Amino acid sequence: MTTRPKAYHSRVRTAIFPVAGLGTRFLPATKSTPKELLPVLDRPLIQFAIDEARAAGIEKMVFVSHPSKDAIERYVAEDADLENTLRAKGKDDIADMLRDNALTEGGVEVSFVMQDEPLGLGHAVLCAAGEALPGPVAVILPDDLILGEPGCIAEMIGAYDPEKAGHMVATMQVAEDEVKSYGILSVTGRDGPLILADGMVEKPEPAEAPSRQAVVGRYVLDGSIFDDLRGLPPGAGGEIQLTDAIAKGAGTVGMCGFRFTGTRYDCGSKSGMLQATIAYAGQHPEFRATLATLDLPTDAMAAQ
């Protein structure tokens, strides 16, 4: 159990979207198009993340971007000229969709901050410190697409109890040979969907991994995360690792994993993007006839 001052805010009001990465695994497509704007069928990755945050009741969205990726800022803004052009052509349904997708004034508060150098996820989150509202914050990695209802971050916020654990990370069990690609929890127990932990290790070798509970791209973090990130030395890969700061604060505010109910797709990889596209297409009746003509592996069909 942790002790909070009376002024402590337990409500999660801010979502941080680290979107500064250059998407080198998707070159040449990402030479001119940010990877967050790559479509899963007809819907950009960033839109899934925005909609997930909206469904969770987030009040402010902070996008940590890069100067070369101004297309993201244009995408989230309302485009009245385009909407008017579509309406003049009788395409009101498309214009309505664009208006609904846009982050307009009077709705959710939006800000953009720049991460000029690729110094790691922890550094990206720290860049948002000056824009975050008081209390815990959510962090959503758009290229970790999690399909399911309710959305993953809404599930996490619904289960978040700072008296049990101030830091909550989304987790999934992975194969032993995959642990070296993730932050891995040091598990101490379970409480329903919560996986209690006393720390985590970033990208351990399989023989040294404390468990197979891997951290994926959703976090609800106590506001102290910013203080723990300041002055943190570089970790794995020479970058400022968010998992190192979470582990640092675990002894003070507590930490846990959360087993979400949706299906996660690693859309930072080409194979994950393909799997996500097939699964998402399978949710739409108009594409089922097309999918039926494909000789898909059993596991790909199950994902639909």
TrEMBL record:
<keyword id="KW-0548">Nucleotidyltransferase</keyword>
<dbReference type="Pfam" id="PF00483">
    <property type="entry name" value="NTP_transferase"/>
</dbReference>
<dbReference type="InterPro" id="IPR005771">
    <property type="entry name" value="GalU_uridylyltTrfase_bac/arc"/>
</dbReference>
<dbReference type="GO" id="GO:0003983">
    <property type="term" value="F:UTP:glucose-1-phosphate uridylyltransferase activity"/>
</dbReference>
<dbReference type="GO" id="GO:0006011">
    <property type="term" value="P:UDP-alpha-D-glucose metabolic process"/>
</dbReference>
<feature type="domain" description="Nucleotidyl transferase">
    <location>
        <begin position="20"/>
        <end position="276"/>
    </location>
</feature>
<protein>
    <recommendedName>
        <fullName>UTP--glucose-1-phosphate uridylyltransferase</fullName>
        <ecNumber>2.7.7.9</ecNumber>
    </recommendedName>
</protein>
<dbReference type="InterPro" id="IPR005835">
    <property type="entry name" value="NTP_transferase_dom"/>
</dbReference>
<comment type="similarity">
    <text>Belongs to the UDPGP type 2 family.</text>
</comment>
<dbReference type="InterPro" id="IPR029044">
    <property type="entry name" value="Nucleotide-diphossugar_trans"/>
</dbReference>
<keyword id="KW-0808">Transferase</keyword>
